[in-house]
Amino acid sequence: MKSDPYWWEDAGRPAGPEALPAEVDVVIIGAGLLPSAILKPFVREQCSWTVAHHTTFQLYHYGHLIGANPDAREVWREHPYFDDCAEFCARWDQCSFDPDYDDAPIDFFEPMLREVFARAPNRAESLRAGEREPLQNPVLAEERVTA
């Protein structure tokens, strides 16, 4: 499983499946709206929006190779989470297609998944509608990598 430990940001303690690399949601449940709908009750609005729209934003990196519009994401240019989704795709999602990209075993993600899905759904402190945070927390990421 491809991952960058710096994507594991603190999404209201702890980080969780909103941070899963793209291939996880593709392999397990498809891409885009379905994973976002599953995650939405448990994670920040910022993260669920990014998961929902990353497939369109990803076209910026490979759309020209498949005859799709690389600028399809521009319809969302004024959205408050546009830059977050663009950053996610540029830093982590598109890199996961590189066979030489460093990866982590699926077991690395299991404790984070369990903790996030153990949350009561739709809690305001988890969803934090309208709030933006940096997508990475280097201190937390380093703790997880060295744990």
Can you characterise this structure?
48% of the residues lie in helices and 0% in strands. With 147 residues, it is mainly α. It has one domain. Helix 2 (33-39) runs antiparallel to helix 3 (45-66) and helix 3 (45-66) packs across helix 4. The longest helix has 22 residues, at 45-66. The radius of gyration is 15 Å and the shape is globular. It starts with 21 loop residues before the first helix and ends with a helix. Residues 1-30 have low confidence and may be disordered.
Offer a concise description of the structure:
With 147 residues, the protein is mainly alpha-helical. It contains seven helices and no strands. It has one domain.
Give unreliable regions as ranges: 1-30
Give me the oligomer status: single chain
Based on DSSP secondary structure assignment, what is the total number of beta strands?
0
| Number of domains as seen in the coordinates | 1
Distance between the termini: 18 Å
Q: Structural class, from helix and strand content?
A: mainly alpha
Largest sheet features:
none
How would you summarize the topology of this molecule?
Blueprint: H1 22-29, H2 33-39, H3 45-66, H4 82-93, H5 110-117, H6 124-127, H7 138-146
Helix pairs in contact: 2-3, 3-4
List keywords for this structure.
single chain; 147 residues; mainly alpha; disordered N terminus
